[in-house]
Amino acid sequence: MKNGEATVGDAESLRELYGAPSETAQRKVLRRLDRHCRAVIAASPFLVIGSSDAEGNCDVSPRGDAPGFVAVLDDERLLIPDRRGNKRVDTMGNILENPHVALIFFVPGMTETLRVNGHVEITTDASLLAPLAVNGKAPQSALLVQVEETFLHCGKALIRSRLWDPEQQIERSSLPSLGRMIADQVEGVETDDAEANIEQAYRERLY
User: Fold this and answer.
1) Residue 2 placed within a domain
2) In this structure, is residue 5 part of a structural domain?
3) Is pLDDT of 3 > 60?
4) CATH code: domain of residue 50
5) Is the pLDDT of residue 2 over 90?
6) Is the model's pLDDT at 7 over the cut of 80?
7) What are the tens digits of pLDDT across the range 185-204?
8) Same domain as 152, residue 134
């Protein structure tokens, strides 16, 4: 960085600012899923998936279900069911333009997370989707991820945030309901209608 500048503009300046990572941090990246990665995935009920389109516009989306909802097909492949949502298909659209994703798996009560980066495709193969069925309903599609790198991430962020600490949970009434916020944000939407639609979706359209 030049004197007086407060912006990091190149890799050399970035490395000068932060220094070198430890040897362990550099060497911990795996190219396949070992038994520890598999165990975390089997225990995880929630992940976030990052994607971007051909122009680099980014999206991060949550995915969640019962622990182990992501299927490990082998040491190099994951299968993520696409459950019913709002039909925006932001992640799917990005994948069609740029078939690469980044995943972070969370396990309640565990401060460490598992990161997976890989190449992805959207599959409608019935033989792959059938084992992912819940309440007799298979997903319309799933994301088939070819693992390119994976590693366990330390728990500093979750420790600092006290994410799993029950005392950190807010009183839900301290923020407006989702229906109220949507009505405020979207012209022509009434709070009661939004609330009714959300309640019905949660009750009838999870799968």
Assistant:
1) no
2) no
3) no
4) 2.30.110.10
5) no
6) yes
7) 999 999 999 999 999 999 99
8) yes
Q: Does a structural domain hold residue 113?
A: yes
SS3 label, residue 205: coil
pLDDT of the residue at 4: 55
How many other CB atoms are found less than 10 A from the CB of residue 50? 16
Segment 173-185, tens digit of pLDDT: 999 999 999 999 9
CB 57, CB 88: distance < 8 Å = no
Structure token digits, residue 183? 């009505």
Q: How many other CB atoms are there within 10 angstroms of residue 150's CB atom?
A: 25
Structural contact between residues 114 and 105, judged by C-beta atoms closer than 8 angstroms: yes
Domain that holds residue 197: 170-204
pLDDT digits (tens, 9 = 90+) for 98-112: 999 999 999 999 999
Distances (CA, A) of 45 to 10, 95, 109: 38, 23, 12
pLDDT, tens digit (0-9, with 9 covering 90-100), for 26-38: 999 999 999 999 9
Residue 136 sits at φ, ψ, to 5 deg, of 75, 5
Instruction: Please tell me the distance from the alpha carbon of residue 96 to that of residue 120, in angstroms, as a whole number.
Output: 9
| 3-state SS track over 2-58 | CCCCCCCCCHHHHHHHHCCCCHHHHHCCECCCCHHHHHHHHHCCEEEEEEECCCCCE
Whether residues 191 and 117 share a domain: the answer is: no
3-state secondary structure of 171: coil
Output the six-digit token pair for 31. 């190219």
Provide the pLDDT for residue 1. 41
